[in-house]
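Homework help thread (please don't just give me the answer)

Our assignment gives two proteins as sequence + structure token strings and asks us to describe the second one. The first is just a warm-up. Here they are:
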Amino acid sequence: MERTKSIEQATTKVNRWVVLFASVGIIICQGGIYAFSVFSSPLAAANGWSVPDVALAFTIAVGISPLPIIIGGRISDKGKSRELILFSSLLLAASFALAGLSTQLWQLYLTYGLLGGFGLNLGYIACVNNSQRFFPDKRGLCSGIVITGIGAGTMIFAPLGSWLIEQFGVRTTFIQLGAIFLVISLICSALIRNAPIEDSAEAKEETSEAVSPTIEENFDWKGMIKTLRFYLVAMLYATGCFSGLVISSNAADIGQNMFGLTPMVAATFVSIYAMCNCLGRVLWGALSDKLTRINTFMLLFMFIAVSLLSMIFIKATVGFGIGLIGLGLCEGGVAAMMSPLTIENFGSKNQGVNYGFVFLGFSVAAFIAPRLTAFIGEKNSGDFTSAFVTGVIVAVIGFVLAFSLKQINAGLTKKKNKNA
């Protein structure tokens, strides 16, 4: 208990809400990397490259995510989050500035792809990891608030980037955005403090059983991957994100081909989806602090199924709207709950590294869902119904996985109480 009291004394010296919203500022800058679609065509035109070749830079930045998340998680778990956040911010700013100076494709892949990918993901895991250590009582809400920055950054820097390109050209725009990221990140980094690295068992005493009724033991990644729970948690990430990725990667095509929307209206729905994704991170994250993570996941999979069924059976704009809004909210909720769920199942001590391995579940879904959906649409002349049916099946599998994890944790809790 003395250790717990010392942690409380340490955190009272820091305004945790200042740390939280400074972390959001960092993540907003990192969200700018997801606005790549604004830059791809101007870059291709300016350098005589093909758009698919240019797009590979973004694929690299996102595709390498598990590696920097694992590396960053290791550093953050050692209590060096603030230093890592500053380093990643400098890396991200440099990646944009250097991308603007790139004259060869390999240079773009190295700067925007490799450096940008590391800058994005090192900062992401450090901000999420560090913030949650300040909020053991509100992990879901905290995680949800922090990662709204990704969507917010995309919504801010996509139109800003487009305007800057019109005014100054794509090369200068990259340099200008790098400078903007640098200024914002330096200010926010100055407000961030490292959270104390507490023992998971002691932190558990501070958390209500209603919020986190799991056996919060400290696993390292080697021990974690030997457990059945790891595979259930990683598969929850994959199944939870699958349907959202189906929509986010093909929303405009689905709206135009299946629901008769104009390109402008379809683009508006894409923006609505992005806003719902941000909102869902906060709403589902906060709800999971009340209902428990697993119960909330089970409810979320029901919402996913209903959203997909609306697009299958309601052949009108309203059906598309219901499905798109529902799936946007749910994809955001999955992102918000996965880090807290990882902590509750595998402990706080190595939460950064462990989350990096759990994140592989998202990587698998991100590799399969968009490609499968595009293939289905192409083979069926723009009809994506089979993709929606697949999504419903995946949601049912996700519900079963969540229920199975709940039963396993209930058994572990019962065993622990019996041995106490």
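The one we have to describe:
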Amino acid sequence: MGFIFSKSMDQNLKKQQEFMLLNAQLQLERQILMQNQMREKQMAMQIAWSREFLKYYGTFFSLAVVGLTAGAIKRKKPALVIPIVPLGFVCAYQYDMGYGTLIRRMKDGAEQIIENESNLLELPQGMPTFELIEKARKAQRKFFIDK
């Protein structure tokens, strides 16, 4: 009788463990999807911001080019067009960020770093462990209790 009872409990325990594993897997998949959606939304906002900024900066840059060029011609001082060069670099960067291939190049560069230079990505003092986090939590709690 005891053997049948323990066999039934073992089967229930195995079913419960399988259910818990499946539930943990489902929860992890949901977290990964949610984090990826948040990442995509943040990237979309960054690209949209770059495009919007480019509209305003492009207007400023155009007016600056016309004004500086006209001033250089009128006053016969070619040095007045020098600020156009750095302003042009900023404008080109913003265009590349909003409409060009900058993000694709950054992604390719990140993949190269992950594949070939992963040692640069290591955290100082290694990956945090449960023990280290608990130790810090207890130390912080003690610090606040002592005050």
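TA reply:
I won't write it for you, but here's a hint about the kind of observation we're looking for: Residues 2-116 form one domain.
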